[in-house]
Specification:
333 residues; alpha+beta; 2 domains; elongated; disordered N terminus
Length: 333
């Protein structure tokens, strides 16, 4: 059988790269409730795509459709170059799935869980043991390999869950909220595992409730709301969609403050703090222009900080009315 033709996506440099996942007009309803209302996706191979959205937005449904666990009511999709509807078995052979709830069997040991997955993938006994040992070592689980999985911590169970997913050497991994319930240290450890997978060429489709997680890991982010993709782009592109960015200049010299306030337009004054807020998208060009102006005018600010919207602001702005964005984060420059 000839190898499947992978769809391609055009990068910013004009070159094309193979798409690991592509979808057009995916729809899914349960009774009168429309969960997905015609979403489009295009995810390059070897990248991390994060799908954000409030509870009930359709994130898990999207993963279930793309991983062949359920069928879509409409639309088309290809995963690893295979059509979901025409060749679901080939899709299953190319992917791994780690759901919200651990698939680990707590009644058997970590090693036995791994060997069971090897049997399900029809590996020989020798190959199954070799891969089991390699993955247990990779995920720092060798010392606990002979212990019942029920004795593992939450972080250890999630590591074992992903290790089990990797037994079949999947090219694409779907991680549905993989760090839910983990403590901060375990979450950061999981982030490192995901980065290593992508470095090795694996494509990761990630759903998460943690906006920092998407900001840290994802090459591109989609925000799902009311069954539709409300926005998609890099983290920085999404942040620029939301107004509220500004540059804050603070002075200790009242004369310098008054000079800057009278000369700069569209500023918000804080006379008590001797501070000016200047609307800005936080770009390097705008920052350089302001610094050049201050130098030319002979005005020296004692503190300059850039305030930019974060993914919290993006999330609240895009996922429904009545939500108030968090205060913008600031970073001293």
């Amino acid at each position: 059988m000839p190898s499947p033709v992978m769809p391609t996506s055009r990068r910013a440099d004009g070159h094309t790269s193979p798409a690991a996942v592509s979808a057009a007009g995916l729809r899914k309803s349960y009774g009168d409730k429309t969960v997905l209302d015609g979403i489009d996706l295009h995810i390059p191979a070897g990248s991390v795509f994060a799908l954000l959205g409030p509870n009930g937005a359709g994130k898990t449904t999207t993963v279930q459709i793309l991983s062949t666990l359920i069928t879509a009511d409409g639309g088309q999709a290809q995963v690893a170059g295979h059509d979901l509807a025409a060749d679901p078995q080939a899709v299953r052979a190319a992917i791994g799935v780690t759901g919200q709830f651990s698939a680990v069997d707590g009644l058997i040991t970590g090693e036995e869980n791994m060997l069971l997955m090897a049997d399900l993938h029809h590996l020989t006994r020798a190959e199954g043991r070799r891969i089991t040992t390699e993955l247990l070592a990779r995920f720092d689980l060798l010392d606990a390999a002979q212990k019942p999985a029920s004795t593992y911590s939450g972080g250890m169970k999630r590591r074992l869950d992903i290790a089990m997913t990797l037994v079949g050497h999947p090219r694409i991994i779907f991680l549905d909220e993989p760090t839910t319930g983990l403590d901060p240290r375990s979450r950061h450890n999981m982030w490192q595992i995901i980065r290593e997978l992508v470095t090795g060429g694996t494509t990761v489709f990630l759903t998460t409730q943690y906006l920092e997680e998407a900001d840290q890991l994802a090459d591109r982010i989609g925000v799902l709301n009311n069954g539709r993709i409300a926005a998609e782009g890099t983290a920085e592109e999404l942040k620029r969609l939301i107004p509220g960015g500004h540059i804050r200049l603070r002075f200790t010299d009242p004369a310098a403050y008054r000079s800057a306030a009278s000369a700069l337009r569209e500023t918000t004054r804080d006379d008590e703090a001797l501070a000016l807020h200047i609307p800005s998208d936080g770009s390097q060009r705008e920052l350089r222009s302001l610094l050049d102006w201050l130098d030319a005018a002979g005005i020296e600010a004692d503190e300059l900080t850039v305030h930019t919207p974060d993914l919290d602001d993006v999330f609240f702005a895009l996922t429904g009315p009545g939500n108030v964005p968090n205060q913008p984060k600031e970073s001293a420059r």
